[in-house]
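[audit] Reproducing an earlier prediction to check determinism. Same input, same settings, fresh worker. If the tokens differ from the archived copy the diff job will pick it up downstream; this log only records the rerun itself.
[audit] input (244 residues):
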Amino acid sequence: MRGQSPMLESTTPNRRHFRLVPVVLVLALLSTACNYLDWGPGGPERPWWCDPTDTEVNDGHGGGAHGGHHFPYTEPKGPLTAGNCLVTDYMIEQALPLAEQFPTAGDAEDNGWFQLAPWIPGQGTHHLDLSYGIPSQFDWTRPTMLMYDSNSRSGQLTGMVWAVASGMHPPAGFPGDNDHWHAHQALCFRNGTIIGDGLTDAECAALGGNNVDSSGIWLLHVWLPVYDGWLATDIFNKEHPSIN
């Protein structure tokens, strides 16, 4: 039987919104940036992840309609414009200090972050701040979850997750077209923890759990700029090649 998990509830419906805030940010940042062209291709201020080498639609993972894991994106990823690169860099830099307060899973758990999902190859764990929950609006300053590279309390921080309960469409998110969001049709929960994805109700019940409709919750992974010596092929990739 499909139900609702209190951890996945949202209070306010959200419609896909026009990316006005990044436009305003561009204008504000340009007033302080040394040179707009410094953030363009080959520019000295440009982070390497503004030019992803993994450009496949949906990171090469299964796409399809909303019943699948990804929104049906059609365009491959590619180099960000100077403005989008500048603003995306600013957004990520604003979010990193919160995540970096909790360098290990134990640090996060001691401060209210609950291990919502166990370690998954290519992703690690997903820890949710119970006091924040899952919002219905995208806030680039506030990652919803943190990821760690093992189930132990000594697990090291690998990245951040934005989760937004925005309904049938993912939120506008970060500027540019490289943030390919994904959703899960149903997640199997037992005692508040995810124990399965894509299971039938009978399969989930056999594990002592309940399937929760998660189709309106969109997720995006944002990896640390550098983890374990790895420089991301795309900072928004769904999976990380060093977590295995």
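[audit] rerun output stored. Observation attached for the diff report: The two ends are 33 Å apart (CA to CA).
[audit] end
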